Backbone:
């Protein structure tokens, strides 16, 4: 139960007709699980149609794995029902929190990396994997702040989670670039330390720059093409670890399908070169 | 070092507009990115759910309303298309909007349309199977699609909502309590139609399990002109009837 090591796209309902007409040669489509938690109607009709033709990745944004309380049992059940209904080829969630004290905040919020939060996150992942009866992929976050309490580097934190829970990782290359840029770190050093053996999917997305009094901050906005330095990091990574399922994420100010498909083809060209490298070596 | 629950208490208060949480090595401006993201994403979710309400109020007024609503009724689940049920009651309590009493009803219609969009699928009954039973109206009970709802409004909320849609009718709004049928045809066509009072009674009675004859009699009390055959035909045309049975038969 894995995604093919090809380029995929985030599915947007406004692209459904274009996808049906052109039947693009894509490795998979990814959806945000929370958008498909109604009982029926157009969302499920479109998803069932995609399921017949493509591999599917379900990407959760609301479970709050980095939260302080127990996981939301109702939400776990919804995820289980959705996964049972469609049998996706991958399920992924975020190293972040989004709910606290009964309020859902609808953002991927950061946490410090400490022995205490490591235990919490591992417990939550164990619970999720048990509830879904499947291995999940955990995504590295894009962050704008740092915590004085953090005692564990993010890559070590992720490696320890993999070791303890057996989960895989979703490596978002744009998030690496955004976080490293925001915190004065070297993205190549981050990627060198990343536990790549656990990677089951890569994400590429666009970011935007915002000017603050202290200087430029990069925002993981998913509303622009993938930036050149992120493409460069991606190509180096594929050269090193070989082809991986790769998603182009574009969630805001979504362009027409052909524009997205062009980005997916750019990723596919890099994957094809990676395959050539892997065969030659 | 605060424990994680206490840390998130600080964060939640700070995201709602309080002081920056302790323990960060980065600036207030960096933290404000999260505050903006939370607010912006929830505001966009409300815009998607209440587009006519936003058009009626204007973007600026709706922005202020959504900020107050987010503070008073934050979502409790990540399924945001189920969030917002408190909006009609919330709008109705706002003194500056008291001169626009139909706004709450417009919000009710938009909530019902959202429910219909996501409601469970159900295959309409083939018309010939239905017509085979239609001779026995005294015993005929109908089951409508799960999406079907009748809204009884205190205001002309439907007429106001309709005038925010493409090709609005030119006639002026008549001050009355509108009745509205909200449902879905097939997988994706959300229906929103005005009902006259007799039609509303008829459909409500059907949904309550009354036979077609009993429902017609209830409706006819409101006006001699009630024609159950037209309503019945419209329900068939719109694929609204998923099952029929004759009372007394085992289902």
Residues:
């Amino acid at each position: 139960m894995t995604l093919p090591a090809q380029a995929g796209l985030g599915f947007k309902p406004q692209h459904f007709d274009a996808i049906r007409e052109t039947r693009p040669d894509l490795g998979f489509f990814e959806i945000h699980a929370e958008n498909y938690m109604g009982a029926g109607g157009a969302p499920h009709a479109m998803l069932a149609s995609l399921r017949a033709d493509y591999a599917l990745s379900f990407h959760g944004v609301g479970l709050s794995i980095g939260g302080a309380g127990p996981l939301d049992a109702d939400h776990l059940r919804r995820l289980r029902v959705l996964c049972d209904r469609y049998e996706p080829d991958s399920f992924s969630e975020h190293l972040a929190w989004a709910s606290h004290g009964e309020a859902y905040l609808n953002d991927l919020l950061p946490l410090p990396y400490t022995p205490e939060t490591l235990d919490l996150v591992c417990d939550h992942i164990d619970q999720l994997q048990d509830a879904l009866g499947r291995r999940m992929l955990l995504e590295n976050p894009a962050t704008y702040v740092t915590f004085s309490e953090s005692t564990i580097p993010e890559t070590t934190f992720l490696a320890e989670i993999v070791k303890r829970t057996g989960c895989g990782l979703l490596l978002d290359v744009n998030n690496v670039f955004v976080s490293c840029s925001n915190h004065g770190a070297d993205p190549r050093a981050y990627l060198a330390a990343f536990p790549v053996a656990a990677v089951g999917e890569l994400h590429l997305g666009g970011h935007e720059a915002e000017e603050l009094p202290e200087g430029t901050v990069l925002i993981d906005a998913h509303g622009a093409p993938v930036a050149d330095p992120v493409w460069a990091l991606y190509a180096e990574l594929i050269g090193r670890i070989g082809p991986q399922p790769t998603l182009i994420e574009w969630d805001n100010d979504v362009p027409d399908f052909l524009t997205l498909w062009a980005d997916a083809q750019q990723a596919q060209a890099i994957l094809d070169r990676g395959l050539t490298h892997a065969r030659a070596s | 070092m605060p424990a994680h629950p206490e840390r998130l208490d600080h964060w939640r208060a700070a995201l709602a507009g309080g002081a920056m949480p302790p323990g960060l090595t980065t600036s207030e401006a960096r933290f404000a990115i999260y505050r903006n993201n939370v607010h912006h994403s929830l505001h966009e979710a409300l815009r998607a759910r209440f587009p006519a309400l936003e058009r009626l109020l204007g973007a600026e007024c709706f922005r202020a309303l959504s900020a107050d609503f987010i503070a008073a009724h934050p979502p409790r689940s990540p399924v945001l298309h189920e969030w917002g049920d408190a909006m009609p009651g919330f709008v109705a309590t706002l003194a500056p909007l008291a001169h626009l009493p139909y706004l709450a009803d417009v919000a009710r219609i938009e909530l019902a349309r959202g429910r219909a969009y996501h409601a469970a699928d159900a295959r309409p009954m083939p018309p010939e199977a239905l017509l085979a039973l239609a001779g026995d109206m005294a015993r005929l009970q109908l089951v409508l699609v799960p999406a079907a709802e009748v809204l009884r409004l205190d205001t002309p909320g439907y007429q106001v909502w309709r005038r925010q849609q493409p090709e609005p009718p030119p006639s002026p709004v008549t001050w009355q309590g509108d009745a509205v049928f909200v449902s879905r045809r097939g997988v994706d066509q959300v229906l929103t139609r005005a009902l006259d009072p007799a039609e509303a009674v008829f459909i409500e009675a059907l949904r309550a399990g009354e036979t077609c004859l009993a429902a017609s009699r209830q409706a006819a009390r409101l006006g001699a002109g009630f024609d159950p055959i037209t309503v019945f035909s419209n329900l068939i045309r719109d694929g609204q009837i998923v099952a029929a049975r004759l009372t007394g038969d085992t289902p």
